Amino acid sequence: MSEKPLASDTAMILAAGLGKRMRPLTASQPKPLVRVAGKSLIDHALDKAGAAGIAHAVVNAHYMADALEGHLKVRKSAPQVALSDERDQLLETGGGMVRAASLLPDPFFCLNSDNIWIDGPTDVFSELSQCWDAERMDALLLVVPHTRARNYRGEGDFHLDAAGRVSRRRQSRVAPFIYTGIQLVSKRLLRDAPEGAFSTNVLWSRAIEEGRLYGVSHMGLWCEVGEPSAIKPTEEWLTRA
């Protein structure tokens, strides 16, 4: 089977959050600027995107937005970055995508800025692109089994059926797949969205009900970097990888 080209040349990086779990490091800087292995979290994401052929990135900013904007302005390498300004109101993940919609093509990649991953046989953008079907999907989530996750202590997020359709973890049970924070999104997902701040979970729930939320299992490794205690083991893991 021949490889498909990337489904989009644009990625949105969600970087507007308050970073409460990363305190005290976020008392003086936004979470995306916290450094891991000598590089800020957002540069880890942007550098991966650029290396995979992503030409454009949209980064939303709210908490300490001036510092994040200043950092992005001095970046020289791909992708080219545009700012989606949320200084007036923190819009959460779903509201952030809606605010940035005019800057985004259809479809677009969307990434959280607080995780680090190692690609498998192909990069994550190609992994998603290979499985993308715009006729059937409103969003395609990159998920990872517990055995390929580092610094994760939860019970998982999702199940996948034989066709790759997503369902949520049942209460008090363990789900086999963890959401990596990386997805490929059709603008159809954003239709009739609530106004103001809301979670992407609102849109995912509708897509699940309609059978249009899909997932693909990441073939590489993934690391959650949500707290200061995760930084040292992540750096050690990257050294060994």
- CATH homologous superfamily? Spore Coat Polysaccharide Biosynthesis Protein SpsA, Chain A
What would the average pLDDT be, to the nearest integer?
95
Please report the distance between the alpha carbons of the first and last residues. 29 Å
* Structural domain count: 1
**Cα gyration radius (Å):** 17 Å
- Return the structural class: alpha/beta
Number of helices: 6
Q: How much strand? A: 25-35%
Number of strands: 14
Task: Identify the CATH architecture.
Answer: Alpha-Beta Complex
Low-confidence regions? none
CATH class: Alpha Beta
Query: What would the principal axes of the Cα set say about the shape?
Result: globular
List the topology elements:
Layout: E1 10-14, E2 35-36, E3 39-40, H1 41-52, E4 56-61, H2 65-73, E5 80-85, H3 92-99, E6 108-112, E7 115-118, H4 124-131, E8 139-145, E9 149-150, E10 158-160, E11 166-168, E12 177-185, H5 200-209, E13 213-217, E14 221-224, H6 231-240
Parallel strand pairs: 1-4, 1-6, 4-5, 8-13, 9-14
Antiparallel strand pairs: 2-3, 6-12, 7-14, 8-12, 10-11
Overview in brief:
It comes from Novosphingobium barchaimii LL02. By secondary structure, this protein is an alpha/beta fold.
What would your notes on this structure say?
The chain has 241 residues and is an alpha/beta fold. It has one domain: Spore Coat Polysaccharide Biosynthesis Protein SpsA, Chain A (Alpha-Beta Complex). Helices cover 24% and strands 26% of the residues. It is built from 6 helices and 14 strands. Strands 5-4-1-6-12-8-13 form a 7-stranded mixed sheet, sandwiched between helices. α2 links the parallel β4 and β5. The longest helix has 12 residues. The model has no long low-confidence stretch (mean pLDDT 95). InterPro entries: GlmU-like, NTP_transferase_dom, Nucleotide-diphossugar_trans. One of its GO terms (molecular function) is nucleotidyltransferase activity. Keywords: Nucleotidyltransferase, Transferase.
